[in-house]
Design a protein that fits this description.
Length: 405
């Protein structure tokens, strides 16, 4: 018989979100009367707004016409790539530096092919689980030669360091996944912090995979929405982004990755050329309908709708955070991101998850699922219909009040 890919033995048995879904199902089966509300998985809930939706509908209609029909779009519609460059990067990237994808997660999973097995990988701790699992799957989680360190390096991001890691721990000549606004903590890196990150990466030969999936939630104009706002970043970073959380495309599937021409490997070869080769080989392009929707989303009217939709979820976030703070629960996030990161000192986060489910019939996400530094934290997602979020907040009031320190 054929042997199993040994990397598969190294990933954790269950992926976080299906595990939560399983526990929810078990609870529902034991309590059929419970009206469960989810503040767990970061899945959008509101209808796609009219202008963007018209773009999707029109994209589908075009496919039924002789003149409007289109087949494979490979690296993406030229018009969409150019528009992304204008809207998000002030036109500084050429179309061949922007690759349209079927979502940020899909590209995060594929990107490791650029660097391969044996790459030294570091992540913020806590972080979105796909960075770790994607790295382990490709065999990047081996021993760091000469360091005695094995596996992925977790760089703690805690209240003590303002949720920004100690950059002296960055892997030299390795890969570092960095997410801002951050999932799960909901915190956003400042310009100074990102400048320090870029400088450290340039010094150490580290490549940063910058995940900007929540950039459209940033309301503080001083906070960078892209790593490419930082001088020097085009030589040490690539960036993934998505229409999922801004335009409500979680089920439509559309994203992009920026791979600057300046980004090169140790041998001087261009990362961009390899990414083009990889995408051409294992990816056949995003849906043309989704791309028509993406183009509509980046028109003036569509951009207004993105603002409206993200404002709505940020309104939910404010309600959840205020509720938790009234209970004396210390939390961060929710002002420039759709996540609130709440601390339950000394508690196991899976126990707190179970307690919130049992006491309030509210699904959350245990912080430990995002890495060791997430222990004793709970992530609340701000994606939900307003009446349900209000109801969830009322029920969270059943949690024991923690005396204010
Ligand atoms: C549940 C930092 C959510 N089944 O939709 P995409 O692929 O463009 O973007 C996915 C993504 C990328 N980067 C970050 C993210 O947080 C997400 C989505 N994360 C969450 O609750 O943490 C949805 C997760 C989904 C999954 O497994 O990704």
């Amino acid at each position: 018989m054929i042997s199993r890919n040994p990397c598969l033995a190294n990933i954790k048995a269950g992926y976080l979100f299906p595990e939560i879904a399983k526990r929810r199902r078990e609870f529902a089966a034991a309590h059929p009367e419970a009206k469960i509300i989810s503040l767990g998985v970061g899945n959008t809930t509101e209808p796609i707004l009219p202008h963007i939706n018209r773009g999707l509908v029109e994209g589908a209609r075009q496919l039924g016409t002789v003149t409007g029909y289109s087949g494979y779009s490979d690296e993406g519609l030229l018009s969409l790539r150019e528009r992304i460059s204008q809207v998000f990067y002030r036109g500084r990237f050429k179309a061949d530096e922007i690759f349209i994808s079927d979502g940020a997660k899909c590209d995060i999973g594929r990107l490791q092919l650029l660097f391969g097995a044996g790459t030294k990988v570091a992540v913020q701790d806590p972080s979105y689980p796909v960075y770790v699992d994607g790295s382990v799957l490709i065999g990047a989680a081996g021993t760091w030669a000469g360091t005695g360190y094995q596996g992925i390096r977790y760089l703690p991001c805690t209240a003590e360091n303002r949720y920004f890691p100690d950059l002296s721990l960055l892997p030299p000549n390795g890969l570092f996944y960095f997410c801002s606004p951050n999932n799960p903590t909901g915190t956003t890196a400042t310009r100074e912090q990102l400048s320090a990150l870029v400088n450290a990466a340039l010094q150490k030969g580290t490549v940063i995979v910058f995940d900007a999936a929540y950039s459209e939630y940033i309301r503080d104009p001083a906070l960078p929405k892209s790593i490419f706002e930082i001088p020097g970043a085009t030589s040490c970073a690539l960036e993934v982004n998505s229409f999922s959380k801004s335009a409500g495309f979680t089920g439509v599937r559309l994203g992009w990755t920026v791979v600057p021409q300046e980004l090169v490997y140790a041998g001087g070869e261009k990362v961009n050329a390899d990414w083009s080769r990889i995408c051409g080989t294992i990816f056949n392009g995003a849906s043309n309908i989704a791309q028509a929707g993406g183009l509509a989303a980046l028109e003036t009217e569509g951009l207004k709708e993105i603002q409206e939709l993200t404002d709505f979820y940020l309104g939910n976030a404010r309600l959840i955070r205020a509720t938790l703070q009234n209970l004396g629960i210390s939390c961060v996030g929710g002002d420039n991101a759709p996540y609130i990161w709440a601390q339950f000192p000394g508690r196991d986060s899976w126990d707190v998850f179970a307690e919130i489910l049992e006491t309030c019939q509210v699904v959350s996400t245990p912080g430990a699922g995002f890495g060791p530094a997430g222990q004793s934290f709970i992530r609340f997602s701000a994606f939900g219909h307003r009446p349900e979020v209000e109801e969830a907040c009322e029920r969270l009031g059943r949690l024991a009040k923690i005396p204010m320190r």
